[in-house]
Description:
Order of helices and strands: EHEHEEHEHHHEHEHHHEEHHEHHEE
Structural class: alpha/beta
Shape: flat
Helix content: 40-55%
Strand order of the largest sheet: 2-4-1-5-6-7
Largest sheet: 6 strands, mixed
Amino acid sequence: MNANSLQVYLIGRPQSGKSTSFAALVGAGAGHRRVALVPDARLDHLFAVFAPRKRTSAEIIFCDIFALKAAELTGRAAERFTAALGDADMLALVIQCFGEVDSDGRPVDPVRALDEVMLELVVADHSAVERRLERVGKDARRGLKEAAVELAVLERCRAQLEAEQPLSALGLTPDEAKLLRSFSLLTLKPLLVLANVAESDLGGPPPAALADYAAGKGLRTVAFCAQVEAEIAGLDPADQASFLADYGIAEPAAPRVIRACYDTLDLISFLTAGGPDEVRAWTIPRGTRAQQAAGTIHSDLERGFIRAETTAYADFARYGSFAACREHGALRLEGKEYVVQDGDIITFRFNV
């Protein structure tokens, strides 16, 4: 995963409001793959303090993918579905929680809908594993040791999928997960549930049955009314505040969904600021050390890393300047093993 080109793909059953949810997250415009800026009040504050020429937010790419049903995921359709989702860092599952009936004319049942979307992923993975087993089986019969190892892992995967269980619950070792990485298996990807609720449920929590069921599978759920949120996202920023107030919405869906994506993937942001050119947010996995964080900016910084001059954003906001942070002992020089914290403001010292 490249955290600075994070890709989240929306999937869902027909008529779940998937494409409307996509519009709610990225606003009006053409294309099924759009970039959204990651809101960050810390970056806004730094821009106001330093007034550089440029403000660069972290970005997240949302993609709207065609809807299919599990029964349709055979042969070329399954291959197309897997290929379409292969680049995703995570999947957002849009679940219909509005109206009386679903696309099949059945009473709306969000729990059943979530199960069916997850079954689509299982079926697509089963097709991919079966195709790979055919190839690897031939190599294993020829006595190739590497093929025998892969065959054993794939057979475990097939059994798991035939039990209609995701591969994420299989307990793969790091070596096994690495072996499967190039196959873009969908049930190994992190998931987020988006509950698309009726306008009458706007601003409330997701349906309890859906949230509880998703939580039992280790999944977060975010609720919003896609139709209303898409209207808000299509407005000029100056008009959005009054529209939100009219509907009693404290915060639009997009920031809430983006935060949930970051939490699901365990991502944080560090900040660079102080010069005349730019303030910027950089996305990294939680637990990243200072030298690797420097490489997020440029490989030269990682290769020639000397020290990271670091202050926590909370300290900067309290004291008001880097000089004041230094006076209070809040501006530190950290080495390459320092674990970067969310909101750290860092200047990297390096020599190439």
